[in-house]
Design a protein that fits this description.
mainly alpha
């Protein structure tokens, strides 16, 4: 059972790291494609919802990554500890929301530019 928890925790931490905002390269390969798929899906309902759907998809992929990393870390480093699901979810939502707000503000004030292929999709 202990080996299974360590393997599960390692897998959750690895996948969570790839989705989280903690890795600098993840956006291009994981978060943006997930966000664009969600944006396209929402854009089919109403084309004006493409960009808000993309932002929400980006935020959700970051939240998922943070929460997966937290659950994985608890499995590996605190195998006997009881998980507090509410606390872990709030920490994941809070961290990913703060990160997404910072990125949105940087884009809004043109500190970070949106790539041309994303501005053409609007």
């Amino acid at each position: 059972m202990n080996l299974f928890k360590h393997l599960r925790g390692g897998a959750l931490m690895g996948l969570g790291y790839m989705l989280s905002p903690l890795s600098w390269w993840n956006d291009l390969f994981f978060n943006l494609p997930i966000a664009l798929i969600i944006g396209y899906g929402v854009g089919w309902i109403n084309p004006q919802w493409f960009m808000p759907g993309t932002v929400v998809g980006y935020w959700l992929s970051n939240v998922l990554g943070m929460v997966m990393m937290q659950f994985g870390a608890v499995d590996i480093f605190l195998p006997e500890a009881k998980q507090n699901m509410t606390r872990d979810m709030l920490l994941g939502f809070g961290g990913a929301t703060l990160y997404t707000v910072i990125v949105a503000v940087l884009i809004f004030y043109h500190v970070v530019d949106i790539p041309d292929f994303l501005t053409d999709l609007q």
